[in-house]
Each structure stands twice: as structure tokens, then as C-alpha cells.
Design goal:
The protein is an alpha/beta fold. It has twelve helices and twelve strands. Strands 8-7-6-9-10-11-12 form a seven-stranded parallel beta sheet, with helices on both faces. A five-stranded parallel beta sheet has the order 2-1-3-4-5. Strand 1, helix 1 and strand 2 form a beta-alpha-beta unit.
Amino acid sequence: MKSILVTDHVFPNLQPEETILGDIGKIVFAGAVSDEELRQLVGDADAVLNCYRALSADMINAMEKCKIIARYGIGVDTIPLAAAHARGIVVTNVPDYCIEEVADHALALMLALTRGIVRGVDQTRTGQWDISALRPLHRQRGRTVGLIGFGRIAKAFAERVRSMGYNVVAHDPYVSEEVFAKAGVQSMQLETVFECADVVSLHAPLTATSRHLVNAARLATMKSDAIIINTSRGGLIDFEALAGALKTGVLGAAGLDVLEIEPPTSQSTPIADVPNLIVTPHLGFYSEQAMVELQTKAAQQVKLALQGAQPDYPVRI
């Protein structure tokens, strides 16, 4: 029997994995072990399923038997890809789950901010009733949404906001003009998107070059009433710069489902005193259906690799 290590997970149980992999291997859940203990566990694993636990290059080098690291998710920033590929370990993700959920969540954050929902609720909870304090609010139709990245989720979000009458522009150097044209989206340079958009929604992967893509200098180029939405990766935004822009009126509002440090603390990410900011606890990906889909597809990648077949979702450097 193969040894299949789950480093960590956020699911009620591992039943989908047991159903798919139970006949070829034993599933071992690492739990809250130290890095050194995890290093020992991965050394015995034929396959690894990984959620949020960061794997170091040292852990990868300890994987003497491992054929595949399957990430529970779309991004793979928890896995040192170069180290894995150097050892001949296949890395997979699940790029086509939770598309609808994240697109819906981005839309919900946008509408909550553009319609003053959260500020209005905060007001009425304290016994106030003052529309003037929520001004200005703008009609959705005719405004401009700018997308940073144009993958599956961004496309689904674009469909939603275009149906509401938004003009949609986007920047993604890896997407052809034909793809943009087919989606009814105008391709623009990165700087131009930030300058012209009323709402900027981030849908880019986190890499060395995209970290703190949203910084003080870029925020200064945006409209003073513009809104930033981030349902992608927290590290895309320099939170200190974002908080400063919201406090000084350089930026209108922000809706974040992800932060660079999660969960936030008053020291790492002081969110309590930042005006016009909505933060949700990294739940954009979540629905009961999406969780089962994620577990199932990640486990299927492991089964394919351990049976000597090509996984559906290999991640290449």
C-alpha cells in the first residue's frame, strides 16, 4: 500500500479522498506537527496532498519516494516548484474549482461597497438614519471595472459585471487579444487599468514580480473614489500602503477576502481603524459543492500519478 500524506486541510472530513484512494494507499493526516516532524513524515510519503501549510525546499529534498504533490487549490505558492521539479516530483493544482463562488464573492464585495451596504448597516445598527453620510453613490451602468489577470475567475466576474452595464478593461500579458475580444473586454497596459478604472479587481497569481503589485505609488495613480477588490492572493497588496490610502482619501474603498498574513492581528494587519474597508475571512472559495469538488479532483490527481498515468492538472515552471 502506498503512503499518502495530507499535510493540512480545511474540510469536515477526508471521505472523498478515502473513497478515491483507499484501494491504493493509506491516508495519513499530519495535523499540527512541527516543521521537523513534517519533514520526517514527507520522507515516507509516496504522495502529498497540501492545503495551506507551506512546504520548504528542505522538506521537498526529504521526499525520497514522493511522486506527486497535489495542491488543494488554484495557486501553488505553498510549494517550491523548482525544488519539486528538480526531484522529478509532479505538482498539480485544481484550476477549475470554485470559479462561480469566487466570482460571486468578488461581485458581492463590489456591490457592498458601491451601494454603501456595509456603511449603511453600521449606521442603522447605531440608531442613525442619514443617507447624506453615505454620499456619493454612483449608478453601476456606465462605470468601468478593471481586471488584473484574465483567467477563469476573472472571465466569470467579467460576465457578471458586463451584464450590469459595466465597461470592462483588463491587463494580462499571457492572454491573446483574440481572447479579450471574444469576451468583450478591452486589453490595456497595467498602469492604464489602474488609472482609468472605477473598480479594480485582482485575479493574478502571487509571484516574486507580482508581490505588492498594489503599492503606494500605484494607488496614487487611481481615482480618489476608486475601489479595489482582492479575492486572489493577499500578497498582491501592500496593506500598509492600502490602509494609508483609505485613511487619507487617496482611495475610495477596498474589499478584501485575502490578506498577506492570515488571520490578521492588530500588529500584522490592523484593520479595525481603516475606513471604507471590508475584510472577509478568506471564504470566497467556499461552498459545500466546491469543497467536495476540490477534494475529489485533488485526490484524482494523486491516483493518476500513483498509477503511472499523467495527471490532468500538472503545474509547470
